[in-house]
C-alpha cells in the first residue's frame, strides 16, 4: 500500500528551500540545502570536526566557547554543503547594486553574517519540515479536513 499523502514528505540532501532574512532591509534570501544527518556529506564533515570535542559532548559539557567553535566550523561548511546556488536581494555597499550570485559570494556572506542571523539560518537548515514539498497541506487545509 502506498499513501499519496507522503509524496512530498521525503527530504534528501538534494532538497532545497529559500531562507529569507526578514530582519534585513530588502529581505534578501538564499537557497539552501538541509543540514543534519539528511545531508550526509555535511554531517560527516561536522562529525570529523568534532572528534576532539566528542567526549565533552557526550558528557554534556558544552560551553559558550564550544558553541562559537561549532559556528566557525559551520561557516566554513555551509558554502560547501548548504549552498543551493541561488540568492536574491543582496546589495553591494559600494555600488548600491544587487550582487549577482556566486559560490565565492555565498562563502563571503556566510563569513560576514552576524552570529544571530547565521544561527537563524542554521536552525532553518536543521528543520526538515522547511524542505518538504510545497504540495503539503497548509493550516487552512488541515482545519477544513478536521471539520469533515
Radius of gyration: 18 Å
End-to-end separation in angstroms reads 24 Å
Count of individual beta strands:
3
Largest sheet data? 3 strands, antiparallel
Strand content: 5-15%
Number of domains: 1
Runs in which pLDDT lies below 50 for 5 or more consecutive residues are none
Q: What is the overall shape?
A: globular
> What structural class is derived from the secondary structure elements?
mainly alpha
Side by side, the strands of the main sheet go: 1-2-3
The number of distinct helices, counting runs of at least 4 residues, comes to: 6
State the order of secondary-structure elements, H for helix, E for strand: EEHHHEHHH
**Mean pLDDT score:** 84
Please give the share of residues in helix.
40-55%
